[in-house]
Design a protein that fits this description.
Blueprint: E1 5-8, H1 10-19, H2 25-36, E2 42-46, H3 48-58, H4 62-72, E3 78-82, H5 95-108, E4 110-115, H6 126-134, E5 138-144, H7 153-166, E6 170-175, H8 182-195, E7 200-204, H9 211-220, E8 225-228, H10 242-249, H11 260-274, H12 291-294, H13 298-310, H14 317-330, H15 340-354, H16 362-368, H17 381-391, H18 409-420, H19 427-435, H20 437-446, E9 470-476, E10 479-489, E11 493-498, E12 501-506, E13 529-532, E14 537-542, E15 549-550, E16 555-561, E17 564-569, E18 574-578, E19 585-586, E20 591-595
Parallel strand pairs: 1-2, 1-8, 2-3, 3-4, 4-5, 5-6, 6-7, 7-8
Antiparallel strand pairs: 9-10, 10-11, 11-12, 13-20, 14-16, 14-19, 15-18, 16-17, 18-20
Helix pairs in contact: 1-13, 2-4, 2-11, 5-6, 5-19, 7-8, 8-9, 14-15, 16-17, 18-19, 19-20
Length: 596
């Protein structure tokens, strides 16, 4: 092992940043054995987005991926990114869920747990660090780096000292947006090494063009390890190239000891793999200095781009990036890393599309109310009051948020058994359901069909008429899907089989046709209100009954849009007639309900 250790992030953060985390396990396994021979200090293979994408889009079991990678890389520590008390989801979990998840991940092959909290609230790392140490694994506590009036050198050093007292084995400076300047990195690493004394690992993205310089100055200051990505998956919103850093350090006192010939072979393999995922590529392939102001990490940038494309509002990207800075300030300067990057980014998007803070997501309310922990600065008092009113709370949460959550693993297991009508469910499935309840149930129902495949597009054909059946090709954002249309169902829905996976979706009649089971336009009075979907998403749950009389401003249903929960309300009082059910995928401006 050389003087400076290398963690290669090709199997997690690199493809998450470059092409929406879509790399299949089948494309990782053939390269894994060669990666095992490279001499990396660790290889990052797992984290929230990989787990989520496996069950949401790839039809893969993330626990199986972990075991398969460990089997082909037995000599290289596997590393995962863990969101502290959030684990891999978008809420805080009870301590018993955190403990069970860490223990299960350790059994499946995770050796290094990089643990962070999006607010840098050390209370949210306590249970994770304790669980990792109990499992006999490496606990790497993380500083989520941001620049603001409250993110100071003294604050970072104080945070690191708390991590050391908790039992952390090492520290990571996580610069998720490429904001850490080279000379600031030198000062930060020097100070941490001198005062705290733990090994330091430096993680920075190439988004703003500073990453190579930042890594080099960090190494000169005493950084023990750095994160890089093999060159064919490097730069843009990803990381500095592994080979570049190895060559820069070769023959110096910081020599990594890695063989460039082996790395070149890995780069060639991943270059071939990457071609399969062109349809998911971000357009941000160079340096984007707008991020120095917006502070948007690479994965968030590509997500915002995709979300605006879905809204047919690509021209509003600059406005959303400007609004991100406003929301981050108003929310108490949280570092922009999952889940706060999604919370702030989605709220900024809503502000641009619907008016500033006219719609707070459920997660925005929880953040303002203290349910995620203590923000680096006090959030805007008016927004806090708005959130408390909407949550029906008297005051914000001030103690450790997990102290408000009773043990819940047993309840979650019983709930899953009931939903699956099963006497026994493996703990892996219980934990998957805990992380992503709606998506997990869909995944369990289709898991037996195996992973999706990505193939060359085929010529598109005219789809079958509404209410009929047939097979056809549909091109969406440059990707062609094989679709089998089943017969229409009552309520204006149909079953589509997309690349072998079944989905229930809302349909509209083609021109000149009607859907017999759907109510006619004359069924509602002239004064009826059509409640429309504000954006594409999935209906999570209905919050009132069919035929119920509701008041103006009542919440009719909750949608999941861009991984955030959004309440959909009515403007007028009346009786509710729903046009969708829980689990329905909807598009923007689709009629969700009629109130009249």
């Amino acid at each position: 092992m050389g003087k400076v250790g290398i963690t290669d992030v090709a199997l997690r953060d690199a493809h998450q940043s470059l092409f929406a985390t879509r790399m299949l396990t089948a494309d990782m396994i053939p390269v894994g054995s060669r990666m095992d021979q490279a001499g990396f200090w660790s290889v990052e293979t797992w984290g929230g987005a990989t787990y989520d994408t496996c069950i949401r889009f790839l039809n893969e079991d993330p626990w199986d991926r972990l075991q398969q990678l460990k089997a082909v890389m037995p000599n290289t520590p596997q590393q995962m990114l863990l969101r502290g008390q959030n684990l891999l989801g978008y809420r805080h979990y009870a301590d018993d869920v955190v403990e069970a998840f860490v223990a299960c991940a350790a059994r499946h092959g995770v050796d290094v747990f990089r643990i962070f909290d999006a607010l840098n609230d050390p209370r949210n790392l306590e249970t994770s660090i304790r669980a990792v140490k109990k499992a006999g694994k490496h606990a790497q506590a993380t500083i989520s780096y941001a620049t603001s009036p409250v993110h100071t050198l003294d604050a970072y050093v104080g945070l690191a000292a708390e991590f050391k007292a908790m039992g952390a084995d090492s520290l990571c400076i996580k610069d998720m947006a490429g904001l850490l300047k080279p000379y600031d990195a030198f000062t930060l690493v020097t100070t941490l090494k001198k005062i705290v004394g733990l090994p330091v690992q430096l993680h920075t993205h190439a988004t703003t063009g500073m990453s190579v310089g930042t890594l080099l100055k960090g190494i000169e200051a005493g950084a023990d390890r750095i994160d890089t990505a093999i060159s064919s998956l490097a730069m843009g919103t990803s990381h500095s190239p592994t080979e570049t850093m190895v060559e820069i350090l070769c023959g110096t006192e910081y020599d990594t000891g890695l063989d460039l010939k082996v790395l070149a072979e890995l780069a060639a393999c991943f270059r071939t793999v990457r071609r399969k995922y062109r349809q998911f590529e971000s357009s941000f392939l160079g340096a984007d200095t707008r991020i120095l102001t917006a502070q948007v990490p690479g994965g968030m940038l590509s997500n915002l781009e995709n979300q605006l494309r879905e809204q047919k509002a690509e021209d509003k990207l600059d406005a959303v990036l400007d609004e991100v800075a406003v929301v981050q300030r108003d929310f108490g300067y949280p570092p922009l890393v999952t889940p706060t990057s999604q919370i702030v980014g989605t709220q900024a998007l809503f502000n641009v599309l619907f008016g500033r803070y006219s719609r707070l997501t459920a997660e925005s309310r929880d953040l303002l109310a203290g349910r995620y922990g203590r923000t680096p600065a006090e959030p805007d008092p008016k927004l806090v009051r708005q959130a408390l009113v909407e949550l029906k709370l008297d005051a914000p949460v001030t103690r450790r948020p997990a102290d408000e959550i009773p043990n819940e693993l047993g309840r979650i297991e019983d709930e899953l058994k009931h939903k699956l009508q099963a006497a026994h469910v493996p703990v892996e499935d219980v934990l998957t359901y805990a992380m992503f309840p709606q998506v997990a149930l869909q995944f369990f129902g289709r898991r037996h069909k195996g992973p999706v495949t990505f193939e060359a597009p085929e010529p598109a054909a005219k789809p079958a008429a509404a209410g009929g059946s047939g097979r056809f090709k549909v091109a969406v954002n440059g990707k062609t899907y094989s679709v089998a249309r089943k017969a229409g169902k009552e309520g204006g829905t149909a079953v589509l089989e997309v690349d072998g996976l079944a989905y229930e979706v809302a349909v509209e009649p083609a021109a000149g046709e009607s859907t017999p089971s759907a109510p006619t336009a004359t069924a509602a009075s002239a004064a009826s209100e059509k409640v429309l979907a504000p954006m594409p998403g999935d209906v999570l749950r209905l919050t009132c009954e069919e035929g119920e009389r509701v008041q103006a401003g009542a919440t009719l249903l909750v949608m999941e849009a861009m991984k955030m929960q959004l309440e959909v309300k009515c403007r007028a009082a009346g009786t509710v007639t729903f046009k969708v059910q829980a689990g329905t995928a909807v598009k923007a401006d689709q009629v969700l309900a009629i109130v009249g």
